[in-house]
Design brief:
alpha+beta, Alpha-Beta Plaits, 5-stranded antiparallel β-sheet, 4 helices, elongated
Length: about 140
Amino acid sequence: MVNVLDKTPTRRVAVATATVHLNEKIIRLIAANEMAKGDVLAVSQLAGIMAAKKTPDLIPLCHNVTLTNVKVWYTIDEEKAVVIFNGEVQCVGQTGVEMEALTAVTIAALTLYDMCKALSHDIKITNIFLKEKSGGKTNFSAVQL
């Protein structure tokens, strides 16, 4: 584990994204909130928030950071049959929260997969990446393709 004792605490923010590709039937059911398992998007959001808080338990040598805010939200694109999860994590600390943001959107996407797999296994999770981060030595913003 990297020693961060001598680093000055600063405001840290990280934003990540993940895309879940579904079929037309599933995306229609999700958009209408008619999935047999209930509100799969709300459950996925909650799973993402919970996962951000558990990141140091999942990733070896990841610092345990006191999170001040975790948000997970989604966009449904029925035409493309995708759900895009975005997550933002904040803290005031000596190390960043990139892994927490990435974990949040990844687990949100995996939860959606789990809740939809009874209808189809032809579900793909793609484009998991860090969109931006601020605080610490460097700031970062992904180039939009």
